[in-house]
Amino acid sequence: MVMTGPQGAWADDAATAEMGADVADGLTYPQTKTVDVVDTAFGIKIPDPYRWLEDDVRVNPAVADWVKAQNKVTDAYLDTLPGKDVLAARMKKLFDYERFGLPEKAGGHYFFTKNDGLQNQSVLYVRKGLTGKDRILIDPNTWAKDGATALDSWVPSKNGKLLAYSIQDGGSDWRTIKVLDTATGTILTDEIKWAKFTNISWVGNDGFLYSRFAEPKEGAAFQQLNYNQTIYYHKIGTPQSEDKAIYATPDKPEYGHSAQVTHDGKWALITTSQGTDEKYELHIMPLGKKPSWKAQPLVKGLEHEWQLVEGVGNKLWFITNKDAPRLKLVSVDLKAKVLNRAPCEGSSDAGDVCMAEGFAFTDIVPERAETLTRAQIVGERLIMSYIKDAKSMAMMTNLAGGPAKEISLNAIGTASGFSGTPGDPETFYGFSSFNQPGAVYRFDSRTGQSTSFAEPKLSFNPADFAIEQVFYPSKDGTKIPMFIVHKKGLDLSKGAPTLLYGYGGFNISQTPTYSATRMAWIQSGGVFALANLRGGGEYGKPWHDAGRLMNKQNVFDDFAAAGEYLVAKGYTAKGKLAIEGRSNGGLLVGASLNQRPDLFAAGHAAVGVMDMTRFDRFTAGRYWVDDYGSPAKEADLKMQLTYSPYHNITSGVDYPAVIVSTADTDDRVVPGHSFKYTAALQAAKTGSRPKIIRIESRAGHGSGKPTDKLIEEYSDIYAFLAKWTGLELK
Questions:
Q1: Which positions are catalytic?
Q2: Residue-wise burial string across 601-635, b where 16 or more C-beta atoms lie within 10 A, e elsewhere
Q3: Which domain holds residue 656?
Q4: Are residues 137 and 245 in the same domain?
């Protein structure tokens, strides 16, 4: 299929007829039927011959048969690839190290996850005191034979006696919340269904706040649009049917809501959003002994980003981009606007206070050249995490924002964590890089000293790998950062097979982190490159804005320019460059293959958004209009049609080798995107290199995927990319 321009002039040699099987690189594609479906919007006719592939594989037997037929062809082809077993063995060795999650402290106990190495899911442990004996609390490896049921989030109560945790099954975004007794490990009768995109926020030790949607219609759980998210309070020991709805906006069903409780338990903050853009309204609920659950406005209007840092008494700290594109830290005194000292209406707690509007926020730490990403109060200090040219740095000040001191990280990488509580100087943070799996450190905010809590024992020497950061010009001259990683001493005289990864969207920053699958590529003699495209959050709001809505083409230009730079500088050569991206990055790969098939040898589009005219009709897709625009608006639709991967496949042009990956339980980016895109690729005349799809079962959008499935998936995919870039696997 090819669409020549946004006005909708289509040329397709078989767009409305039954597609015959095609042959590429010795494989025969399954037949994919077409349907006569044409949408008309703003005078533009948009054929959609594979609309039927949007149906849920669990509901439509024809879609299930199509999936089986595609997987049969793909599996047979992948089994012929040389070196796949070499990659799998290398990945298995690279995954096989003991790794820890960041500890959470409650009631004198430390809660943390640990994976012995090749366990499909990490196990939750508890330790009494810093040097106590580790005890297993939750082992999700016992939950499902295929390892695809995962422990998602977990939050101990303030006294550490109870722990609420959420369960993710088959990679779905839906969560089930349960509670256990931490002393005995006994699972209580409490069970919460249909939670999604939720925090778990304890109110004292007797209950917690969470967000959920209504139970979806039968058979629609993986596709139905999500509206009317509501915050509930669950009291321990009661059934979900008795949970109290404490905040909702039925007059604005598109709004989503989450709740956070300050560590002292005095306030609940409700954050309201409409999409993926960081534009929030804030409401405050005074809690006290008997909360009235009455929300009062703190910040009106969905205009700016607000991240709660912490609350102490009547004072709250926030990160915001209001008048600070790279963000700053502010505080607000809730008591300064008290209407009266009498109890709030409907409350019997004399400790409650009622608030008026017009709060004044005070700057504590002003905007810097670096982008502020996170802040925490630890003891009597503020610890702030920044991104500087896509690398982590951390600063510490007093609670008034007084003299700033940098926390030494000593390497190019990504620091995470620093969670803590007022009055307690102890915190933990993790640090990782391309050549360094995550290590966990204990930090004392009084002394500024870091000590090791858990460092991995590795099967390789990190010093054997070179990490370089370059800045290359995009099409419009903008300098884009890019990390390049390879073995020291790698022969680059003729260019090496190279894997270029990108994302470029939703204000999400791509920073240096360790990946066992990527390290297997690098150890095999390949180069790995990560481009920090516009649309991400590396340089704050301006960087994000420069790669979304009407500026989305900048992202594809940045990615192509990264490939051109790698070839021009001799890291790789024509015919040796592969590209990869996930989700919004899958869209990036699909659009880039259409726009620059001459530049790339192969591409992996994972769980991508491939139909830009219909993404907003499924599950959480409606939120993405903040980045993509709305197909219901003429200007947005015309822009979307210029790059939509499904609509811009050009017949008669030789394409790179393409492998698409998705999962039947992906309810974030529904698999119909990948199904339709693959069918269109296979039907078009795009040369002899293969266009195949790998469809996983019970895997979802990616989170919670078991280790053995990750090894199987990426040994398949990287063997495919290796074949088409000339990487010898031995």
A1: 583, 701
A2: bbbbbbbbbbbbbbbbebbbbbbbbbbbbbbeeee
A3: 80-92+498-725
A4: yes
Q: How confident is the model at residue 225 (pLDDT cuts 50, 70, 90)?
A: confident
Longest dimension (CA), the chain: 80
DSSP for 477-544?
S-EEEEEEEEETT---TT---EEEE----TT--------HHHHHHHHTT-EEEEE--TTSSTT-HHHH
Residues 418 and 429: beta-carbon distance below 8 Å: yes
Q: Which amino acid is at 432?
A: S
How many domains would you assign to the chain?
3
Residue that is last in its domain, among 261, 280, 313: 261
User: What's the CATH number where 589 sits?
Assistant: 3.40.50.1820
The rounded distance, in Å, linking the Cα atoms of 267 and 281 is 16
> What's the pLDDT score for residue 342?
35
Q: CA 726 → CA 152, 519, 605, 606, distances in Å?
A: 39, 17, 19, 22
CATH number of the domain that 247 lies in? 2.130.10.120
Does the pLDDT at position 63 exceed 60?
Answer: yes
pLDDT in tens, 624-665: 999 999 999 999 999 999 999 999 999 999 999 999 999 988
Chain segment 568-598, per-residue pLDDT in tens:
999 999 999 999 999 999 999 999 999 999 9
The DSSP bridge pattern shows strands 498-501 and 577-582 to be parallel
Encoded tokens for 654? 């030789």
Lowest mean pLDDT among 49-63, 83-97, 698-712: 698-712
- Give the sheet arrangement for strand 424-433, strand by strand: 414-421, 424-433, 436-444, 449-454
440 and 506 fall within a common domain:
no
What does the pLDDT look like over 364-377, one tens digit per residue? 999 999 999 999 99
CB 486 within 8 A of CB 465: yes
- Examine residue 637 and state whether it is found in any structural domain, yes or no: yes
In terms of domains, do 88 and 126 share one?
Answer: no
Average pLDDT, the chain: 91
